[in-house]
Amino acid sequence: MRKLIFLLTFALLLFHSPAFVFADACISLPLGQEREDCYQKILDTLGSQANTLAGQIAFYDTQIKLVLSKITQTEGQITSISSKIESLEQKLQDRSQLLEKQIVQTYKKGGLDPFEIFFSVNNFSDLLSQVKYLQTIQASNRKFLYDTQTVQTSYAQQKKLIEESRKRLQTQKTTLANLRADRDNLLRQTKNSEAIYQKLLEQARLEYEVIQKALIAGKKEGPVKKGDPIAIVGNSGYWAPDPRLGCSTGKHLHFEVRVNDDWVNTETYLKNTTDKWGLNIGSGNWDWPIKGTIGITQRYGKTDYSYVYKYSGGIHTGIDMVSNQDVVYAVADGTLYSYTGKCGPADLNIKYIDHGSGLKTLYLHVQ
């Protein structure tokens, strides 16, 4: 009985929470800025609730609704513009045919010999009428040409507008696909379990805390040169009795670059290479910290697993890599430091090198 009451209470809280009420309210608003603003307000509210699985899913769902609203609006704009283009095309076609006839008529009128006009009229009044008629035709033709140019300009503008709208639509559809993939990935990894989600967040938080402590309390080992061996790839931070309690999934090297203690895109510092799975990565001039046949298990930036890194805004702050060779090398000259800290029940070993001018490289999970 208690279990039934709990389930009913949970269902009421879930389906009657403010987020769901607000999201439904947005649907009744007209397409456009008003509805988008409504969804954005919900996202602003949900942003602080993403520390729960339900809050994160609601955040994704609202983002999806916002993008769907934009897609519907863009599709409507494309339909409207297409209709205008069809109308303008017909106008241009009609004007082209009419202009062709007028040119022929004007040519015929304009080709008359002035003496022929003079002698063909009965009196001076008729002569004036003929001249005024020709002037009227010429003025009408000039206006017709001006109006035709206006239609043509409008046609060109609408064509440009529809191309921009189609590009925007494609971007919106890509965003929608990514959001749905992120949502599905989150549900798949957590098995829709709040407990699993919280453990994943805790692992990431603990690892972050150890890194921050290392940068403050790391033990100075001394100067190193580029290419010097500094560690061995390991799995420190892994807790065998229950891997969910530690902060490592197994043997690998997490390599990270920081400038003034802020993480930066590690890939822009390392030389271009292709890993054993065919991934092309790197655009810098540093040698990689490990040699042999390298495999990248997680890149820098937004990845399938980076949603757990709340402290970094949901990006993976370095590169995770494995290799058939375990020696870790210094990527540049500097001063080497080491630190071991608790990551849950496990010990996490970190090496880092201070290269000067605020530049540091970090090497995690080493032996």
From TrEMBL:
InterPro entries with a match to the protein in the record: Cell_wall_metabolism_enzyme, Dup_hybrid_motif, PcsB_CC
Molecular function GO terms recorded: metalloendopeptidase activity
Transmembrane helix is among the record's keywords: no
Domain Peptidoglycan hydrolase PcsB coiled-coil: 85-150
Signal found in the keyword field: yes
Highest taxon, organism lineage: Bacteria
A Pfam family matched in the record: CC_PcsB
Keywords: Coiled coil, Signal
Residues in coiled coil: 71-105, 162-196
Signal peptide (from-to): 1-23
Name by which UniProt lists this protein: Peptidase, M23 family
